[in-house]
Design brief:
globular, alpha/beta, single chain, about 250 residues
Length: about 250
């Protein structure tokens, strides 16, 4: 059986024309041999992505979500490329959650209603119903993380970084249908209490981790949400708490 997610020989060049490649430092000690990045993710895993600023962590996640153009390689979900699903549908299955949502017009509730009207999202909603998966209420979920319901009716521009971060993540989980969530520092603007609440929710929605994976967190898993997480964090303590494996990136 194919892994949940595979990245094969992925190479991309930086926009500045320098020709420097995104590297996987864990594959070899010789930087000149690291032009192609490969990884596999199984159901239940939380792959931590680490590396110094500018090494390509966000770019990697955007490539996996087919939001960024790469020059070589392929990304496979359950053994199939994005075009086999249709790229819009694939993006509902492999979903990127930015560190902080760009300033958007309107309110989070208006944004949520708009996203639900996308054709690919409607298709995925019908598919998840057949799979027996339910969509959690994002407003109720965010309330568990300290977000008052009234905040959903305020313009994005009126929200703090921590508020918008939690709301965006709640929307991603509430839309359901994602097999893989790509999380770009999802708790970077949160206090320790809110961070712990978000971590608990995310881990509880996963299926059981592979037997070989270290259990860094004792949160019971219900298997009601995404099948795996790729999680960028600069906090070693968080990586230890939530991760099953770590991918370290560097750049030439």
């Amino acid at each position: 059986m194919a892994p949940l997610l595979q990245v094969r020989d992925l190479t991309l060049r930086r926009d500045d024309g320098s020709g420097s490649a995104i590297l996987n430092a864990s594959l070899s000690s010789c930087a000149s041999d690291l032009q192609n990045l490969s990884l596999e993710v199984q159901e239940g895993e939380v792959l931590i992505v680490q590396g110094e600023s500018g090494c390509g962590k966000t770019t990697l996640l955007q490539c996996i979500a087919e939001l960024n153009v790469y020059q070589h390689g392929e990304v496979l979900l359950r053994g199939q490329p994005a075009k086999a699903y249709g790229v819009p549908n694939y993006r509902t299955r492999v979903q990127y959650v930015p560190q902080r949502p760009s300033l958007l017009p309107g309110t989070p509730l208006q944004f949520l209603d708009k996203v639900k009207e996308f054709g690919a999202r409607k298709t995925r909603c019908e598919e998840t119903k057949k799979e027996g998966r339910t969509s959690p209420d994002p407003v109720a979920m965010a309330e568990e993380w300290g977000i008052q319901r009234i905040l959903w009716g305020r313009d994005w521009s009126m929200l703090s970084g921590g508020e918008s971060q939690r709301i965006a993540l709640a929307i991603a989980l509430g839309l359901a249908g994602a097999d893989v969530l790509l999380l770009d520092e999802p708790t970077s603007a949160l206090d320790p209490e809110s961070t712990a609440a978000v971590e608990k929710t995310l881990l509880s929605m996963l299926p059981d981790a592979p037997i070989s994976a270290p259990k860094g967190n004792n949160t019971p898993r219900k298997g009601t949400g995404p099948k795996a997480l790729l999680w960028i964090t600069h906090a070693p303590e968080q990586a230890e708490r939530v991760g099953t494996r770590t991918l370290n990136l560097s750049r030439r």
